[in-house]
What we know:
Layout: E1 2-3, E2 12-18, H1 23-30, E3 38-44, E4 51-55, E5 58-62, H2 64-67, E6 70-72
Amino acid sequence: MKTLKEVPVGATVTVRKLHGEGPLKRRVMDMGITKGVEIYVRKVAPLGDPIEITVRGYELSLRRADVEIIEID
């Protein structure tokens, strides 16, 4: 299982599945990150948190805890 936190800067990936449950999963889905959507990794902060991505045409910064539940292809 490969998660979004393992993707290098400049790569585009497709979401395969969202793990987890409850408010964290719901919040990630409300941001537009759902199964089948493409995500472009724009930047990673020097200490690895947060990660800036582009999804559905807008830019979004996510914490490491958020990207660990996103399984990608």
